[in-house]
C-alpha cells in the first residue's frame, strides 16, 4: 500500500491549486524580466552570458507551452476562438508581431550603436540609421520566417490532435 | 465514458452544427465534440449556457440514468 498516494481530490481545491501554479509561472517570468533589466543597468551593457539563465527560462517555457498546446490540440482551439472574435486573423497577427519585434530590435541596436560608438551628433545619426536598417534587414525576414514555420507546424500538429480526439465521434 | 447523445439530438433538432453551437456559447467546436463524446466534463456554467441556447433543462441534456 502506498502511504503517499492520496486519491481523494476535491475539484475546487485542484482548480484553485492550478490557479496558484499559473500565478507562480507569471511571478517567475516577472522575476526573470526584472533580473534581465537589473543586470543591464548594473553592467551597463547587454551581454548574453549574464542573462543566459533567464533566456533559457523564457525560451524553454515558451517552447514547452507551444509543444504541449499543439499536442493537446489547444493551439487550434486558441486560433479558432481568436479568429471568431477578431478582425485580424491569428496568422496575420503572428507575422505582424515578427515585423514589429524586428523594428524594435533595429531601434534598440541603432540607439545602442549611436550612444556607444559615435563621437559627434552627425556620426550618431549615421550610425543609428545604418545599424537600424541593417538590423531590420537581418532580423525581420528571420523572425517572420521562424514565426511562419512554427505557426504552420504547430497548427498542423494541433489540427491532427483534434482530429484524433474527435475521430470516433460520428 | 458515456456519450452524450441527448446533447447531439438537441443540437440537430435546432439544426445547428457543432461549430455553430460552439460559437453561440463561446467555446470551440472541439469542446462541443468532446462533450458529446463524453470525453470532457463541462463546467456548470457551460452546461447552463448550452441548455439556454437549445431551450432545454439541465436534466434534459446532462442527467444520465444509471443502468
What does this molecule look like?
The complex is a heterodimer of chains A (170) and B (67). By secondary structure, chain A is an all-alpha fold. Helices cover 82% and strands 0% of the residues of chain A. Chain A contains 5 helices and no strands. The radius of gyration of chain A is 22 Å and the shape is flat. Chain A starts with 10 loop residues before the first helix and ends with a helix. With 67 residues, chain B is mainly α. Chain B has one domain (5-57): 434 Repressor (Amino-terminal Domain) (Orthogonal Bundle), CATH 1.10.260.40. Chain B is built from 5 helices and no strands. Chain B has helices spanning 5-13, 18-24, 29-37, 44-53, 58-62. In chain B, helix 2 packs across helix 3 (29-37). Chain A binds chain B through residues 73, 76-77, 80-81, 84, 162, 165-166, 168-169, and chain B through 23, 26-31, 33-34, 36-37, 39.
The largest inter-chain interface, given as chain pair and residues per side, is:
A-B, 11 and 12 residues
Oligomer: heterodimer
Question: Can you tell me the residue ranges of chain A where pLDDT is under 50 for at least 5 consecutive residues?
Answer: none
Number of domains of chain B: 1
The CATH class of chain B turns out to be Mainly Alpha
Note the gap between the termini of chain A: 42 Å
Strand fraction of chain A equals under 5%
**Major β-sheet annotation of chain A:** none
Helix/strand order of chain B, N-terminal first: HHHHH
Alpha carbon gyration radius of chain A: 22 Å
Pfam families (chain A): DUF6773 (PF20563)
InterPro entries (chain A): DUF6773 (IPR046664)
Keywords (chain A): Membrane, Transmembrane, Transmembrane helix
Transmembrane segments (chain A): 24-45, 51-67, 95-118, 124-151
Amino acid at each position: 500500500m502506498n502511504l503517499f498516494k492520496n486519491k481523494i481530490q476535491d475539484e475546487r481545491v485542484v482548480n484553485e491549486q492550478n490557479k496558484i501554479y499559473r500565478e507562480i509561472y507569471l511571478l517567475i517570468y516577472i522575476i526573470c524580466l526584472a533580473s534581465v533589466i537589473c543586470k543591464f543597468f548594473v553592467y551597463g551593457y547587454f551581454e548574453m552570458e549574464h542573462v543566459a539563465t533567464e533566456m533559457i527560462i523564457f525560451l524553454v517555457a515558451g517552447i514547452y507551452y507551444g509543444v504541449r498546446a499543439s499536442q493537446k490540440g489547444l493551439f487550434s482551439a486558441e486560433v479558432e476562438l481568436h479568429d471568431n472574435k477578431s478582425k485580424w486573423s491569428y496568422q496575420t497577427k503572428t507575422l505582424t508581431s515578427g515585423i514589429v519585434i524586428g523594428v524594435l530590435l533595429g531601434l534598440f541596436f541603432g540607439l545602442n550603436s549611436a550612444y556607444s560608438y559615435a563621437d559627434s551628433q552627425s556620426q550618431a545619426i549615421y550610425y543609428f540609421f545604418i545599424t537600424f536598417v541593417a538590423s531590420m534587414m537581418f532580423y525581420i525576414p528571420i523572425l517572420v520566417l521562424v514565426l511562419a514555420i512554427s505557426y504552420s507546424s504547430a497548427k498542423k500538429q494541433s489540427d491532427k490532435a483534434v482530429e484524433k480526439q474527435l475521430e470516433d465521434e460520428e | 465514458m458515456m456519450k452524450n447523445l441527448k446533447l447531439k439530438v438537441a443540437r440537430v433538432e435546432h439544426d445547428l452544427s457543432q461549430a455553430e453551437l460552439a460559437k453561440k456559447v463561446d467555446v470551440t467546436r472541439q469542446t462541443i465534440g468532446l462533450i458529446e463524446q463524453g470525453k470532457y466534463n463541462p463546467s456548470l456554467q457551460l452546461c447552463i449556457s448550452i441548455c439556454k441556447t437549445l431551450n432545454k433543462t439541465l436534466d434534459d441534456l446532462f442527467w444520465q440514468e444509471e443502468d
